């Protein structure tokens, strides 16, 4: 997570390269939430584009977006500067630091693609204090892309991301490992929260493709250039680049080998999909 605060990190590429959440997921979260929609707090908001979409789509009156990275918050505030955006504020705070909010004042707290970085017991305790009774806590994430049309490239993608000779040593842990296990260790406290709904989804698992709860299905159509931009948005790639400034570009070599392995070329359009998880809960009355 520290890499996202680096002055060298490309926050614009982060916004543009990452996949978007499907409309169906917003509808799922909308139908789960009960009661008023006055205040939404989105922690780990990054450059803020998704936070704004969430506020508008779910119909919240006010948005407070926070992130530990001053670079991300600077980007978020730049995006809304001069625009007719009402009742939106972005500020630098750790997700676990919610002391600046009054008790029982928040209707929904979201942590999108950031829960794996958090001190989760501290976070859900802080969230419980500020959520109103039956207010919603929602966390979710996605990880480990595969190219749907090219299952033969799965092992190669795995090797590029996690082998010792590639990006493996440059992921920040234990956060990355928590996300790879789809937040299995982040258990919502049943004494503090009720109506817990959770779903995991693994792209190549036939068993999980037919789970009882509607999963978060993350897919995006890409070209090789799009995929290159996506890889370059990874914190591990940014860390590798900063620590190996004189080395030939690891990403370029990866894409060269991917072309050979998959048969894709610069004109190809393909479907990228991710394993995913979400967990929703309501503060107990």
From TrEMBL:
Entry keyword annotation includes Plastid: no
Entry-linked SUPFAM superfamilies: S-adenosyl-L-methionine-dependent methyltransferases
GO MF entry, a single one: methyltransferase activity
Residue ranges of domain Methyltransferase in the record: 41-135
Gene3D superfamilies: Vaccinia Virus protein VP39
Any one biological process term the GO annotation gives: methylation
InterPro entries, A to Z: Diverse_substrate_MTase (IPR051052), Methyltransf_25 (IPR041698), SAM-dependent_MTases_sf (IPR029063)
Keywords per UniProt: Methyltransferase, Transferase
Protein name according to UniProt: LAQU0S06e00650g1_1
Organism: Lachancea quebecensis
